[in-house]
Amino acid sequence: MNSLQNYAIICVDDEPLVLQTLKEQLKRSFGSQYDIEIAETGEEALEIIEDLQEDNIEIPLVITDQIMPGMKGDELLKKIHGKYPQILKIMLTGQASAEAVGKAVNLANLYRYIAKPWDETDLNLTVTEALRSYLQDRQLAEQNQRLQLMNAELQQLNSSLEQKVADRTTQLQQAKEAAEIANRAKSVFLANMSHELRTPLNAILGFAQVLINDVSISLEQQRNLEIIQRSGEHLLMLINDVLEMSKIEAGKICLNEQILDLHDLLFSLQRMFTLKAQSKGIDLHFEDLVDVPRYIKTDEQKLRQVLINLIGNAIKFTLKGEVRVRVQIKKLEEIQWKSETFLEALNEGYSPAIPVLSIEVEDTGIGIADSDLKKIFDPFVQTEIGQAVHGGTGLGLAITQQFVEIMGGKIMAESVLGQGSVFKFYIKTALVELSQIQDKPITKKVIGLAGNQPQYRILVVDDHWESRQLLINILSPLGFQVQEAENGKIGLEVWQHWHPHLIFLDVRMPVMDGTQVIQQIKSQDKNTVLIAVTASVFNEEHLHLVKEGCDDFVWKPFEYEVLLEKLSHHLGVQYLYQEKENTAHFLPQELTSEALAVMSEQWLQQLYHAAELADSEQIMQLVQQIPITEPVLIQAMTQLVQQFSWDKIIQVIETIHYSKKS
Ligand code: ADP
């Protein structure tokens, strides 16, 4: 069949005349766009439809008569509908029964019926409407198909997106795990480092303490030991600081507020830095503390480190002149900083009436250029002149600023190049009532064990000879029985035959480490007290040890008092005490004529003479002759020598002579 059109309408009727009329009428109206095909039987119509379909000609409409020999109209339509449901069907009914139309409607989705004889206009209208409806449906179907395609594409995209998300999640999970492993490795490294450094330092500090407690040593030796102790403590603090910086970076740092003897802290800093300042010919001056409360609540470690950094820098970067430390308790509103830092604090909602500890460290040193001032608190920043003066790390001020901020404060610096600098900071603080400090351990010196107590057996297990010796040196003279073991295995053997009351146990040891010893002992005997001696800073390890049954910890380097306190806590040990001198002697002391009056006239004359010659060595020899019952005088004299205050000594001696004469 040859068709010029893409669309065809099929007409079926057994009466050739009717068929011809129908064809002509349709051709007139629709011939330009549609082929009009005719068939005289249903069978023929089906064949034509097949042929047209094969030629890819679309059939929007079939119009058929009902009554025909062979296949009836409704039957034909039913068949067409079964195969091509989209084709619209119209029935031409003559005397056709309503039943046939009903069947065609139900079974073939009949679109319309047209009664014979029809009116041409009616036919045209019906067919036009049918064709429009067909095209519309086809469009809808096409759109629907497109939508379905898009939907399928979307679904594919979606599932590939889900796959991507799943892949990315797995990657992230792997990255997170890798980071966690790296972080754990860093923690282990820090723990090891801290252990390696603290263990020998523990021996240095501990032996210095052992020697200081020795009553037979001279004042000179005592002073030298104190220097060893202070330097060791400073070194310890530096180690702590590197760890601290790592902890700041890891977000692990927190505020540790305790009651602090501020005067004691400041005076210990003065003692620590005086020698250094003197060696450079600089005057280190702590301004009057009269109005500064002695006890405040703050984070002592951090405040100490901040001051060490600032005073240390001030001395380091000053070639002549002086370094002044000014300490005051103020209200925040009384701080007169001409800087944004202060305004920032107010913006952060601090109450202006809040009391703060305000400290200024001022020097007459090399100064800092304006351009450098802004960045000196950044890690690893050093000014050009700063670098020339010494090769530090540039970490000090970064840590200082972090610590000040953790303590709820702010820090800033002002400077004039070539004239000097002043570093000012404040921290939030709470003043402490005297009643609150009653609980502080009384600083009494332990001289031995009280009577009527069991013979305490203490075992020290540590692979470091020095660490073992240190504990033995502290404990044996007090009257404890002490045995030692150099690893866990030997420790267990000693424990089995000697039954110590308490074991000080190093955690990390070769052969058998502390954890294994704890497991072995605690599985057989719950009574032996096990105290882990650790240099680790990480809490995870401590939690683990507690789980294993460890009773307590002491941290290296341990404080003498803490160690003894642990023994008394766990074993009920009671000590004999010798009252330590009042801690007041640590405060700056005024040299008075009354205090000097206890010394002999000859001694006073020698002192006067030595002061006139500014002979500090001679004066210190004279100081050694002051009886130990006069600690305040010893302290005052030592300070004056450290400050080169010869005039003051001369002046006080002259007052005595003057009053004697008059
Ligand atoms: P470091 O002292 O190890 O170099 P800091 O962070 O403490 O590190 O100081 C950073 C830099 O700031 C110093 O190198 C120095 O250039 C400058 N600086 C700090 N304090 C002073 C000061 N008091 N006077 C002059 N310059 C200073």
Q: Secondary structure elements and their pairing?
A:
Blueprint: E1 7-12, H1 16-30, E2 34-39, H2 42-54, E3 58-65, H3 73-83, E4 88-93, H4 98-108, E5 112-115, H5 120-212, H6 219-249, E6 258-261, H7 262-279, E7 283-286, E8 295-298, H8 300-316, E9 322-331, H9 340-347, E10 355-363, H10 370-373, H11 384-389, H12 396-406, E11 410-416, E12 420-428, E13 430-431, E14 444-449, E15 457-461, H13 465-475, E16 481-485, H14 488-498, E17 502-506, H15 514-524, E18 529-534, H16 539-548, E19 552-555, H17 560-571, E20 575-579, H18 593-596, H19 601-612, H20 616-624, H21 631-642, H22 646-661
Parallel strand pairs: 1-2, 1-3, 3-4, 4-5, 7-9, 15-16, 15-17, 17-18, 18-19
Antiparallel strand pairs: 6-8, 8-13, 9-10, 10-12, 11-12, 14-20
Helix pairs in contact: 1-5, 2-3, 3-4, 5-6, 5-13, 7-8, 8-12, 14-15, 19-20, 19-22, 20-21
The structure holds adenosine-5'-diphosphate.
Quick recap of the structure?
The chain is 52% helix and 17% strand.
Describe the structure.
It is a single chain. By secondary structure, this protein is α/β, with parallel strands linked by helices. It is built from 22 helices and 20 strands. The strands form five sheets. It has a five-stranded parallel β-sheet, with helices on both faces. Helix 1 (16-30) crosses helix 5, helix 14 (488-498) packs parallel to helix 15 and helix 19 (601-612) crosses helix 22. It is elongated. The relative contact order is 0.06. The model is unreliable at 438-442 and 580-587 (pLDDT under 50). It binds adenosine-5'-diphosphate (ADP). Adenosine-5'-diphosphate (ADP) binds next to helix 8 and helix 12. Adenosine-5'-diphosphate binds at residues 309, 313-314, 317, 363, 365-368, 376, 381-383, 386, 392-398, 421.
